[in-house]
């Protein structure tokens, strides 16, 4: 299948995105932020529609919106108790805006479908480069502050007790998350970023007791999902997103059963 | 002995009420001080001032007057780790190894980890997840995590409160040993006067409108808290 350019592009881009999302997802789950990740991708949907409306690339519109809002959210809800409420409010606003932008832009419905459900097949070489660079930025961002992020994610009280700047770390992490969500949406769509960002990390939590262990498993689960998804999509012509979704669901189900059987 | 902490007329008020008022005391390097007093009197608040988490609203608090680098290890009173918490005790303790940036641990770091786990009697439990550990084991893991950064000042906020007598003694004996061997300065927040008398040499007794400070030998032998 890799003899076709469009499949090669999809394969390379998906590989980088899956690695990035597997990594970031472990932190998202540790920080109890999967709901927030979902909201960011809805904001991304609004950003992409805005991009379509303005005639700029949907990915750039998405980056613009998610980055701006991640900083706002970071400041609005430093207090955990306020987080859920402000997140639901923000998310309703942005989905509404997304619908508005799409209808104003007079594009056909397939645009909306692509943004919501993903469209990795057929992306251009320039898009591939952009996605690789963005993935690289996220991975570098994680690497540079790895130990601080791990401490703050897995033991915020301890991290604060040792004098870490936990508020700054939160905002830093939200920025990385915003970019991750935007690129994940390129494969699985903004409605389903859960598939790549949180499910692999939840799977990893069942199998590993160390952070590096969880990172490896999450990346592995994400990679297997997108590779097999692309392959099945190629064979059947059914949506890639559908295959990735059922594969990740399958992994999660197996992990859950395994975990249950251990703790019984 | 040199001073490590010097408080002059220290006061702290939250927006609506005054918690600490006109508090003057010193803590010497290498000493072990018990911080005692009834619930809600301001012990944890004082600790938060010491670690720089709060700023005094009155007076001044000088920490480490000779301005060498001071590393504080603080074991907070509360942690909220759920039963599903995934990290092993070993991974949890290693969270505080922050001297280097990159993810992978050096051999030296792994050895330091082994050593602290042995000292806190956690070696055989290191693969247990913190979520599955008992209350006492958790407390020892918190202590080990604070110790792994080789602090000069260790602050324990009621770390022994939920432990049985044997584990209490074990934890305090370890802290006392580190105090002797490495000149670790210790502030021990507690309601346990027996333990305070046995292991610490100074006390700071906060009451609602006043306070007492001095060597342990001067603490009223008939005193009972709460
Ligand atoms: N952030 C805050 N805002 C307002 N009041 C606070 C805050 N933190 C603590 N207080 C109040 O300050 C007082 C002292 O609290 P602190 O936690 O220091 O008590 P403590 O001596 O540690 O008590 P305990 O023995 O129960 O741990 C309490 O009345 C508490 O309600
Ligand atoms: Mg307290």
TrEMBL record, chain B:
SUPFAM superfamilies registered for this protein in UniProt: P-loop containing nucleoside triphosphate hydrolases (SSF52540)
Coiled coil: none
InterPro entries from the UniProt entry: AAA+_ATPase (IPR003593), ABC_transporter-like_ATP-bd (IPR003439), Metal_Ion_Import_ABC (IPR050153), P-loop_NTPase (IPR027417)
Domain of life: Bacteria
Pfam families: ABC_tran
ABC transporter domain: residues covered: 5-225
Gene Ontology MF terms: ATP binding; ATP hydrolysis activity
Keywords for this protein: ATP-binding, Nucleotide-binding, Transport
Family, similarity comment: Belongs to the ABC transporter superfamily.
Protein name: ABC transporter family protein
């Amino acid at each position: 299948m890799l003899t076709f350019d469009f499949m090669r592009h999809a394969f390379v881009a998906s590989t980088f995105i899956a690695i990035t999302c597997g990594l970031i997802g472990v932190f998202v789950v540790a920080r109890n932020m999967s709901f927030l990740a979902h909201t960011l991708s809805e904001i991304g949907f609004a950003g992409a529609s805005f991009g379509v409306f303005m005639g700029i690339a949907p990915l750039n519109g998405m980056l613009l919106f998610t980055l701006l809002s991640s900083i706002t959210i970071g400041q609005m809800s430093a207090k955990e108790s306020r987080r859920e409420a402000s997140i639901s409010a923000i998310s309703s606003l942005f989905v509404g805006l997304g619908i508005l932008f799409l209808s104003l832009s007079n594009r056909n419905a397939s645009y909306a479908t692509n943004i919501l459900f993903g469209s990795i097949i057929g992306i251009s070489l320039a898009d591939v480069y952009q996605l690789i660079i963005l993935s690289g930025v996220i991975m570098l961002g994680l690497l540079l502050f790895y130990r601080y992020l791990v401490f703050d994610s897995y033991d915020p009280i301890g991290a604060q007790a040792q004098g870490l700047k936990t508020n700054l770390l939160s905002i830093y992490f939200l920025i990385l998350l915003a970019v991750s969500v935007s690129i994940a949406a390129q494969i699985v769509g903004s409605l389903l970023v859960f598939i790549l960002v949180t499910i692999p990390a939840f799977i990893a939590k069942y199998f590993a007791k160390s952070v590096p262990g969880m990172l490896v498993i999450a990346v592995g689960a994400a990679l297997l999902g997108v590779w097999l998804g692309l392959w099945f999509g190629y064979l059947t012509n059914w949506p890639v997103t559908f295959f990735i979704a059922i594969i990740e669901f399958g992994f999660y189900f197996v992990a859950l059963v395994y975990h249950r059987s251990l703790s019984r | 002995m040199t001073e490590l902490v010097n408080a002059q007329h220290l006061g702290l008020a939250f927006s609506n009420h005054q918690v600490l008022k006109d508090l003057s005391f010193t803590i010497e390097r290498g000493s072990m001080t018990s911080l005692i007093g009834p619930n809600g009197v301001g012990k944890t608040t004082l600790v938060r001032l010491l670690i720089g988490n709060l700023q005094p609203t009155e007076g001044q608090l000088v920490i480490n007057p000779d301005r060498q680098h001071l590393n504080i290890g603080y074991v907070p009173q509360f942690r909220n780790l759920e039963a599903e918490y995934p990290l092993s005790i070993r991974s949890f303790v290693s969270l505080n190894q922050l001297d280097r940036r990159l993810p992978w641990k050096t051999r030296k770091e792994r050895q330091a980890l082994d050593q602290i786990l042995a000292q806190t009697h956690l070696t055989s439990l290191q693969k247990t997840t913190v979520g599955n550990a008992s209350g006492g084991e958790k407390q020892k893991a918190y202590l080990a995590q604070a110790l792994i950064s080789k602090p000069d000042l260790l602050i324990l906020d009621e770390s022994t409160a939920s432990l049985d007598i044997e584990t209490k003694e074990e934890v305090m004996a370890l802290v006392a040993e580190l105090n002797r061997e490495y000149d670790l300065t210790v502030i021990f927040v507690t309601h346990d006067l027996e333990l305070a008398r046995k292991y610490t040499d100074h006390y700071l007794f906060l009451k609602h409108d006043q306070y007492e400070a001095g060597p342990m030998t001067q603490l009223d032998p008939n005193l009972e808290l709460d």
